[in-house]
Design brief:
Number of strands: 15
Mean pLDDT: 91
Number of helices: 5
Order of helices and strands: EEEHEEHEHHEEEEEEEEHE
Oligomer: single chain
Radius of gyration: 20 Å
Strand order of the largest sheet: 13-10-11-8-7-14-6-15
Largest sheet: 8 strands, mixed
């Protein structure tokens, strides 16, 4: 059997039907993917985060590392040296041990409050994004500062969080063209999610806020600030306050506490 990069073998729990979840598949020879849904929902995201934690708790020596994505758990295993069917059997047993669709966030999660500037000077596409959502900029800022989002995954750059899900009217599309560059600390929005940029980079998402907080800083003891499942809230600040916080440290006034 060919296990090349374009081949994916799928093993389902229960009936053999492509629309049933969770699905277990291998990713070439690099590992195994357990997928809980074919689209992003809070339920599937929490299932993926909780299942990853449970795989870690098993302490299987074959597992090199794990990661949770939007709706999946990736288990890194060298499938040239480990029998795929054996791993599938163990994962099936683990999946049957709990109703993962009812998983809640870990008691170890944190809640963050992050100062965020929404002035047009540093948030050049806030008005455009608000208009796409059917809101005024003032209404958009009020919503951004009242909603609590969760870190649904980290990716694209070290420690960079995807935050969601936002209310349905924020299901706005990406831009048709790339913004050549947004700075580290840029808050961008599309498809009911925020991304808080850990580094300067191009983006197709709209730049709606700016913070002095850096999700990743290798000089800090907590180099990667967020973990999947953490909660995030924003507090509106002025450009002057942003500039003052930028001159201090890479936490930029952000604070966190355990979320019980």
């Amino acid at each position: 059997m060919y296990f090349g990069p374009t081949f994916v073998k799928v093993c389902m729990l229960g009936r053999n039907h492509m629309n049933e979840f969770p699905k277990i598949s291998h990713v070439g020879l690099r590992g195994v993917l357990v997928t809980f849904a074919d689209g992003l929902t809070e339920t599937a995201n929490l299932a993926a985060i909780a299942f990853r934690a449970e795989v870690d708790a098993q302490g299987w020596p074959e597992v090199q590392e794990t990661a949770s994505t939007l709706v999946s758990t990736f288990v890194s295993i060298d499938l040239t040296n480990v029998d795929f069917d054996d791993i599938v059997a163990r994962l099936r047993t683990l999946l049957k041990s709990f109703d993962w669709q009812s998983a809640q966030n870990s008691s170890e999660r944190k809640i963050w409050t992050i100062p965020m500037c929404f002035d047009a000077e540093v948030a050049p596409q806030l008005e455009e994004a608000a208009r796409a959502a059917g809101l005024s900029p003032k209404e958009a800022i009020a919503q951004f500062c009242s909603v609590q989002t969760n870190v649904i995954t980290l990716g694209f750059a070290p420690g960079q969080p995807y935050l969601g899900l936002l209310p349905a009217h924020w299901d706005i599309p990406r831009q048709s063209e790339l913004t050549p560059n947004v700075p580290a600390g840029a808050l961008v929005i599309a498809i009911r999610q925020f991304v808080l940029f850990a580094t300067s980079a191009p983006t197709g998402w709209r730049h709606v806020g700016q913070t002095a907080f850096r999700p990743f800083d290798p000089r800090r003891e907590m180099a990667v600030a967020f973990s999947p499942g953490d909660a995030v809230r924003f507090a509106s600040i002025t450009v002057a306050e942003l500039n003052d916080l930028t001159s201090k440290n890479s936490f930029g006034g952000a604070e966190w506490k355990p979320l019980r």
